[in-house]
Amino acid sequence: MTSHLHALTFDALDPTALALFWAGLLGRTIGEDTGDGVTVLPGSGTELPLRFVRTREPKTSQNRLHFDLTSASLDEQKETVARALGLGGRHTDVGQLPEEEHVVLADPDGNEFCVIEPGNGFLAGCGFVGALACDGSQAVGYFWSRALGWPLVWDENEETAIQSPAGGTKITWGGPPLMPRLGRDRIRFDLAVDAGDGLEAEIERLLSLGATRPDGGGRDDGGRVVLNDPDGNEFTVRTAR
């Protein structure tokens, strides 16, 4: 019994507008609005749905995770950057060095992402969204490997990475030093478990792996159970529909 990563959830000042940005950038479509946020649908079986939910709080600090978008050539890298800027994105500074060849951008809400230069062997074969790059410890990489049933594909110098057995986007954690936590994470994992497996049993399994219940516990507005991973990152679990 293992949860699956149902979606990556973004807090958004305007969920529809932010969904349109990411759908346009990734070449995907938007699903029907069911009142549970606006979803950018996956274009293939290994791509992750993106869910955008409304918040009134503007972004005030750098996110602890971001997308690394891949490029097959320098022209393709330039085209991706131009498309992002045309959709409402902007250049942003997260401390990157002038000699680094990747381009750091932000979406209309300020969520950072990178457009990686061609020739990155680590992201080869991972698709356009090559990685979800996270700030996090080795322990949290081990936790998510066991929680999702995804094998470790990198584990060196306290840096870890996992990938679905089916391939696709890698999830990576950069190891120490970790960024300070300033308020609620704007991007979160949303897990789902098959109805026949039992939600409470899955929650107990995740707790046994190192998850914790946040102060106050309970459920979010969509009825999802809220937990924290070993690094204190909020995530949710619900029964699959």
Task: Give a short overview.
InterPro entries: Glyas_Bleomycin-R_OHBP_Dase (IPR029068), Glyoxalase_6 (IPR041581), VOC_core (IPR037523). By secondary structure, the protein is of the alpha/beta class.
What key attributes describe this structure?
241 residues, alpha/beta, 2,3-Dihydroxybiphenyl 1,2-Dioxygenase, domain 1, Signal recognition particle alu RNA binding heterodimer, srp9/1, 2 domains, eight-stranded mixed beta sheet, six-stranded mixed beta sheet, 14 strands, 29% strand, VOC family protein, Glyoxalase_6, Glyas_Bleomycin-R_OHBP_Dase
Mean pLDDT: 94
Shape from CA axes? globular
Strand arrangement within the widest β-sheet reads: 5-6-7-4-8-11-10-9
Q: List unreliable stretches of 5+ residues.
A: none
**CATH class (first level) name of the largest domain:** Alpha Beta
Shape-level CATH architecture of the largest domain: Roll
**What is the CATH fold-level name of the largest domain?**
2,3-Dihydroxybiphenyl 1,2-Dioxygenase, domain 1
User: What is the strand tally?
Assistant: 14
CATH homology superfamily of the largest domain: 2,3-Dihydroxybiphenyl 1,2-Dioxygenase, domain 1
Number of helices: 4
SSE-based structural type: alpha/beta
Sheet-strand content, in percent, reads 25-35%
What's the number of domains?
Answer: 2
Helix share bin: 10-25%
The ordered H/E elements are EHEEEHEEEEHEEEEHEE
Largest sheet: 8 strands, mixed
